[in-house]
Amino acid sequence: MPAKPRAAATPEQALSAMDQLIATHLVGQHEIAQQVGLSVTDLTCFAYVIEAGENLPTAGDLAARVHVTTGAVTGILNRLERAGYITRLPDPTDRRRIRVAAQPDAVARVREVYEPYYARLTHLFADYSPDEIAVLHDWFTRASTLAANYLEEYCRPD
Prior knowledge:
InterPro entries: HTH_MarR-typ, MarR/SlyA-like, WH-like_DNA-bd_sf, WH_DNA-bd_sf. By secondary structure, the chain is mainly alpha-helical. It is built from six helices and two strands; from the N terminus they run H-H-H-H-E-E-H-H. It has helices at 11-35, 40-52, 59-66, 70-82, 104-125, 130-155; strands at residues 86-90, 98-102. Helix 2 packs across helix 3. The longest helix is centred in the last third of the chain and has 26 residues, at 130-155.
């Protein structure tokens, strides 16, 4: 598919559009978390557990990803476990650590909420050429790395 003509935009306009997307996304995350009976932080942790797949994260891994203390992540994992979202498993190589696994029925519940939204996003991608999607992928990947590095550098509690 050839690229469709697009209106010119400045970096400032692109940043403004990104800010609007992020703000809408944050509100949406709050609403979705409420629908599935979690807080946004708990839902975010659960998403990281799902993303990890078979490479089960440790509590420390999750604390680092969500930028909370290991004590705080223990509370998050307690809530997720009580709600039936995760199970804790002993680390096969280090008995002092635990690994966190997603419960399949909880993954299905969360995916049920997200799938209609992702279907709409997929439909939106249909308006872009493969080259444009490659640019979007590159930008999102690089911006995510930049954001993570910024958080590590400026926002990590000491």
